[in-house]
Design a protein that fits this description.
Two copies of one chain form a homodimer. The first copy, chain A, is α/β, with parallel strands linked by helices and 420 residues long. Chain A contains 15 helices and 17 strands. In chain A, a hairpin with a 3-residue loop joins strand 16 and strand 17. In chain A, helix 2 runs parallel beside helix 7 (156-174) and helix 10 runs parallel beside helix 15 (390-408).
């Protein structure tokens, strides 16, 4: 079966001026990959009629599926709609249901609708309007001569749900074969060591197995195709089983998201509470945990103790340890974690102390402390990074602290995954 | 004078699979804009010889300056070097100085050099090698028939310094006119209200004035050109003066970076210390402050008190206030800030309490508390965001808390800027 070839057009002069970071390209690329559609090109083009027209023509010529983002707004710079309609030879007509939708939207937010907004209700003949429940600019789906064009609004918080709810089902139905993806979240082994273990499995194309490294974590993505979803799912299950047999001890979640989400979900389910005591991470561990909605069920207290004085005064780290071993030591990491646990009454407390740099001889040396009713221990984490990577060192340290909290609670394993 | 037209080619199949987020495109776009070079296209293309060749040919045909990122590594997937050389009709030759460089690099890191690495020492005839002091793959500059091609490595921590140190000077010299950019960092006024005040100034092209909004802050970018740098700088100075006259009260820095950097620099200079007490922000305020190197001079203690119990126990927020007004109230915000100041002995403490969502009727309601030896006050911040924007609400709240700390210290104004 011939796989479909896709192309992404990101429209907007602001992208060519470097004003904003595009995230739509990556989002759409990943989604297309999950659908088994090959993305060959991704082009950023400004709000310039001639250059946009050229880019649209080229895309429609060489690709089966073209997805654009941006240029659907009400201003005269917004020309994506007109350009695609013109390239496909479709006439624009006022779309009454969209007029009504826009009118009631403007009434509901108490703003006045301008004539310009009316341009957003112009729809090429035969096109399908993709209703935008997340903003004002409707999306469009135009089809002609086996070419499929999807026009989506630029803001990611509109584009992402629009793709998921409106475009994905159409692309999914379009294909004879159905693709299904699953992810395994891995922590505690480097990408190359993991590849070593899984090399032969990574050779296959269906199911495919691909690793993505990020800040000391690895995500394994498994994609299979089948005549129907059930068949694809079954193939994924087989691959997941093989990976778990070889590297299961490092897999902390299946179709999960992050260490912090696993922690909040699992601690919450067991009625456990966590506290933090942070030095070099400066609040990053608590920030990550509390970024998960529902965190209040497991998290009550985090102390960010940046000076020796505060470590002693608030967390009761002994002056003796601070003097004898310095603030970056196993002893102090353990006393910080103990202090946080005592203060908060939490079941488990974790701490992080170390040198984040940017300068100094011992940059990258970090101790993570873990304290529970069973024991208190410290883990040495040599991030091995050179100077100037302050945020990277902080990030690795926060990941390790959260992973250690999961381990201490006996909840690290993927067997605790809610989505397996 | 004809402005030069540039094009960016981002090379890598991993970008088309959505595995990694490209940041090079935005970085290069901004840098080119600052140099007065017009960027018309930015294309992502995979490691496929035919498609890369087409993209390179098209770029060299329609643009004066072509900058590529990626595909310079040692593996057989890395074909950018060969493709450009071929397109420009230049033969590849072994470059002895680069061989020596690579050899000594591999010796220094204790790794074995492979035959593949030798490919990185192949240089098109007449090309200039752009020495890479940040990694192994050297960059290349090829020039032919008024076309300029710059090949840079893909990793941002190599590409960014390579552009800054190696490419920028060449592009700068290439142009008759010299471009200079300055930024004004703005907080406390929305983008559209600011545009209202500055509309006529934004019409001009040289100096140009452009606003960029980000998480409740606005960055104003001013760019001028001149026969020499001094002339361009002088034009920028005139524009800066005009902006300050109209909206100076919102400008907190000149050529600065962020509220937290301004805080760390200015508090440090005055010998002031800050403490934080966070509820909805969950450590984000302290995380931001401690992300600035040198933060230890101004920051000692942050408390992340997520529950009422901890607000009362650690920060001594009164049970009466918690019961009468609830944890999200002016009274509690003020008591949290007071508590943090008392515990830490800091000069100024800030707090944040509110509803980050994702659900609930009062999502987006936030109180920021500020306490100093002079007074304690609370600020109501109605972020006006709908549900589901938890991180956005947290981010706005953290910005406001840091801005209020600067205001309380009388250090908010741009007049405290170290770079003006």
């Amino acid at each position: 079966m011939k796989r479909q070839i896709a192309e992404i057009l990101l429209v907007g002069t602001e992208l060519l001026l470097g004003d904003i970071m595009d995230t739509n390209g990556k989002y759409l690329a990943r989604e297309l990959s999950d659908l088994g559609i090959d993305l060959y090109y991704q082009t950023v083009v400004g709000d310039n009629p001639k250059r946009l027209r050229e880019a649209v023509n080229r895309a429609l010529e060489r690709s089966d599926v073209v997805i654009s983002s941006g240029g659907l707004g009400p201003t005269c710079d917004d020309i994506t709609r007109e350009t695609f309609a013109d390239a496909l030879g479709l006439e624009l007509k006022l779309h009454e249901p969209t007029v009504e939708r826009l009118k009631s939207f403007f009434t509901s937010v108490g703003r006045k609708m301008t004539d310009n907004n009316m341009r957003q209700a112009m729809v090429p003949e035969g096109a399908t309007v993709l209703t935008n429940d997340w903003g004002t600019a409707p999306g469009l789906y135009m089809k002609k001569d086996q070419k499929h064009a999807f026009l989506l609004p630029g803001p990611p918080r509109e584009l992402e749900p629009m793709f998921r709810e409106r475009v994905r089902p159409i692309l999914f139905d379009m294909s004879d074969r159905k693709f299904v993806s699953d992810t395994l979240e891995v922590y505690g082994i480097g990408e190359s060591a993991l590849e070593e273990k899984l090399r032969d499995l990574m050779q296959g194309a269906d199911p495919s197995l691909a690793p993505y490294a990020k800040d000391g974590e690895v995500l394994l993505r498994i994609t299979s195709s089948g005549a129907d979803v059930a068949e694809a799912k079954e193939k994924n299950r087989g691959m997941i089983q093989k990976v778990l047999e070889r590297a299961g001890e490092y897999v902390y979640d299946i179709n999960g998201e992050s260490l912090q989400r696993a922690l909040v979900e699992r601690f919450s389910k067991k009625g456990l509470k966590i506290a933090t005591a942070e030095s070099l991470t400066g609040g990053l561990i608590s920030k990550r945990i509390t970024s998960v909605s529902g965190a209040s069920a497991v998290f009550e207290l985090g102390i960010c103790s940046y000076s020796d004085r505060i470590k002693n005064k608030i967390l009761s780290v002994s002056e003796a340890s601070l003097e004898e071993y310095s603030a970056v030591s196993e002893a102090v990491a353990m006393e910080m974690a103990e202090g946080a646990r005592r203060l908060s009454g939490a079941d488990i407390a974790v701490s992080a102390t170390g040198y984040a740099g940017p300068t100094g001889e011992r940059v990258g040396l970090v101790y993570i402390g873990v304290s529970s009713s069973l024991s208190t221990r410290a883990v040495k984490l040599d991030t091995g990074r050179r100077t100037g990577e302050r945020e990277y060192i902080r990030s690795l340290s926060a990941s390790r602290a959260i992973a250690e909290a999961l381990r201490e609670a006996g909840l690290f394993s993927w067997e605790n995954s809610c989505c397996k």
